[in-house]
Amino acid sequence: MAKKQTAGRNKLGDLAPKFAELNDDVLFGEVWAREEQLSARDRSMITIAALFSAGLYPQLKSHLALGKENGITKEEAVEIVTQLAFYCGWPKAWSTFGLIREVYEQK
């Protein structure tokens, strides 16, 4: 079962409380919690691919970290990005490999 998400409230609760509530309670509290339909690991892979394709690197870094928590190995993350490079852009892969290094090799 996914842990309770509080990033929305922590980062945006004072500025956009309704958005923060929807992020934490609906997106992560309801959608991500539907693990019988799709595992958190699979949801992480899909989200990583979507963020990669859009070039949304700050969110991508956060979701690489969440993917790591959800069981995606560094080797799998590298393979995901290698595959996506051919469909979404080589420069995006270059940018993302640095994020993978940060997320997976931090001490």
Report on this structure.
This protein is mainly α and 107 residues long. The protein has six helices and no strands. Helix 3 (40-54) packs parallel to helix 5 and helix 5 packs antiparallel against helix 6. The two termini are 26 Å apart. 19% of the residues are buried.
What are the salient characteristics of this protein?
107 residues, 2 domains, 6 helices, 75% helix
Shape: globular
CATH structural class of the largest domain: Mainly Alpha
Q: Percent of residues in helical segments?
A: over 70%
* Rounded Rg: 14 Å
Enumerate how many helices there are, as a single number.
6
Return the domain count: 2
Helix and strand string, N-terminal first? HHHHHH
Structural class: mainly alpha
Terminal residue distance: 26 Å
What name does the CATH topology of the largest domain carry? AhpD-like
Overall pLDDT metric: 95
Q: Tell me the name of the CATH homologous superfamily of the largest domain.
A: AhpD-like
The poorly predicted ranges are none
Strand percent estimate: under 5%
Oligomer: single chain
How does CATH name the architecture of the largest domain? Up-down Bundle
Task: Lay out the secondary structure.
Elements: H1 7-12, H2 17-31, H3 40-54, H4 57-69, H5 74-88, H6 90-105
Please outline what is shown here.
The protein is mainly α and 107 residues long.
